[in-house]
């Protein structure tokens, strides 16, 4: 066989082997998002992901000053856009965060805190392909500027206080039905002639 023929045969063999492994992986493990990714899978996925991000994200520190105002801006933004998956405390311990594959990580831990400022920014702006992490950026300097306070807030997560979490709870997105129910409860408590409304849909208990 000529060299080119041998090369094609080898490529074909490697491709079929890869395909067989992928088919076994999905058929054997199913496509359920429920199981926790294994240690090896997490290690390989994170290593590849981090290499790709380092490649694309130039080294740059947070250009914003380390002030209470910047932190407060990041905290409010996080409560509104991120907490649904990551939790106000960054633990990832939410209905959605726990159900994703891979899970929303506990961002208070070293694996996240060891990422550089610009790696964090890159992830927020671009998201992470094949995971539940959306890209929020528009590719403009304005969008980056709006995301830097989030980087500051993520750095602060290991020291977040109870009162900050309470403040965030008031900013977490609520459905119109929740808001209506709250207003009616307040009117009921003020003695106005209205019974507290039942939730529009039965509570989803897990
Ligand atoms: C729909 C769910 C969802 C939302 C909303 C979301 N994330 Fe994520 N995020 C994820 C998941 C899942 C991962 C884990 C991806 C992985 O393992 O590679 C992640 C990973 C990250 C990471 C990387 C941390 C690490 O150690 O891997 C950062 C930083 C991050 N998110 C920030 C944010 C910020 C800031 C927001 C809001 C602007 C946000 N995320 C909104 C699901 C979400």
Report the span from N to C terminus: 62 Å
Shape-level CATH architecture of the domain at 29-169:
Orthogonal Bundle
Count, helices: 10
Order of helices and strands: HHHHHHHHHH
Structural class: mainly alpha
* Helicity range: 55-70%
Major sheet summary line = none
General shape: extended
Query: Which ligands does the model contain, each kind named once?
Result: heme C
Q: Strand content of the residues, in percent?
A: under 5%
CATH C-level of the domain at 29-169: Mainly Alpha
Task: State the fourth-level CATH superfamily of the domain at 29-169.
Answer: Cytochrome c-like domain
What does this structure look like?
It is a single chain. The protein is built from ten helices and no strands. The N and C termini lie far apart (62 Å). It has helices at residues 3-29, 39-56, 68-81, 83-86, 95-99, 110-113, 117-126, 141-156, 162-169, 176-189. Helix 3 packs across helix 8 and helix 7 (117-126) packs across helix 8. The protein has a domain at 29-169: Cytochrome Bc1 Complex, Chain D, domain 2. The protein has 206 residues and is mainly α. The chain is extended and about 90 Å long. 58% of the residues lie in helices and 0% in strands. The model has no long low-confidence stretch (mean pLDDT 90).
């Amino acid at each position: 066989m000529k060299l080119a023929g041998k090369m094609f045969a080898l490529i074909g063999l490697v491709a079929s082997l890869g395909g067989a492994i992928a088919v076994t992986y999905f058929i054997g493990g199913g496509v359920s998002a429920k199981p926790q990714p294994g240690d090896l899978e997490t290690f390989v996925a994170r290593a590849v992901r981090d290499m790709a991000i380092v490649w694309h994200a130039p080294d740059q520190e947070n250009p914003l000053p380390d002030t209470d105002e910047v932190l407060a801006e990041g905290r409010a933004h996080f409560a509104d856009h991120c907490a649904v998956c990551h939790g106000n405390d960054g633990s990832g311990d939410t209905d959605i965060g726990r159900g994703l594959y891979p899970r929303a990580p506990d961002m208070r831990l070293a694996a996240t805190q060891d990422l550089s400022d610009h790696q964090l920014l890159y992830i927020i702006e671009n998201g992470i392909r094949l995971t539940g992490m959306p890209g929020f950026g528009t590719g403009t300097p304005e969008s980056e500027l709006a995301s830097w306070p989030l980087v500051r807030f993520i750095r602060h997560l290991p020291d977040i206080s109870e009162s900050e979490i309470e403040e965030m709870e008031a900013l977490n997105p609520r459905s119109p039905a929740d808001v209506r129910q709250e207003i009616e409860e307040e009117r009921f408590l003020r003695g106005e002639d209205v019974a507290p409304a039942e939730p529009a849909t039965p509570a989803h208990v897990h």
